[in-house]
Amino acid sequence: MDLKEQVQEKYGEAARRVSSGTGSCCGSAPGSVGCADPITSNLYDAGQTSAIPADAVLASLGCGNPTALAKLNPGETVLDLGSGGGIDVLLSARRVGPAGKAYGLDMTDEMLALARENQRKAGIRNVEFLKGEIENIPLPDNSVDVIISNCVINLSADKDRVLREAFRVLKPGGRFAVSDVVVRGEVPAEVRRSMELWVGCIAGALRDEEYVSKLAKAGFNSIDIEPTRVYGIEYARQFLAEKGIDVDAVAPQVEGKFMSAFVRAVKPLP
Fold it and tell me: 243 vs 28, 202, 236, 237, 250, CA distance in Å?
């Protein structure tokens, strides 16, 4: 099974669990070993969650809250890469108002169905959910003011292409404003793989300097990475121990190196 199939399976299962009322969390019951708490917990305040359907919150498997950190203006067009159950799309649509529009892009049929049902329940009209891959965005050049994403780009096997596509569809002066899992510094390969599995269900996080380099290569400037939640080794102790890793031995090599971060960049004006 390749990476894309793994992602579709995990997130399709998560959507089915939400729809059936049995939770989400990368296919595990909330609170179970490997469940993304404390990664996914307490990301949205009550003012945000009260304005959208509960299933949109349950289906949120991200590690940040890009809608709280991104600057969104009335009348703008926003695109969410890997929109899942639609929470960030629905919140963005409210912020850009009736004159603006929010697109959600996802490749998983179950998540798209859940997102559209959440849109219907929320009664939000300025939203469109698209089926597709973040490596091949089905929108024209220079058509979007802001791109957001909530810990999805790390799951792509071709991050350079994702960033090139993001650059292509952004208007000149458009903003890239995503939450993602980032690694700071060197970590032994086996430990890194296990930590990434714990943080994001499927490994693939970039080092912070790699992220900056790839964004610059795609054409972006004004690049900034702001840590928003650093994951301590104690949170992952049980998960790592089950993977056969001596947590106390590797703790100095891991502590403070895995984090959720808000990644900003701008497409330059001509």
Answer: 17, 15, 11, 10, 13
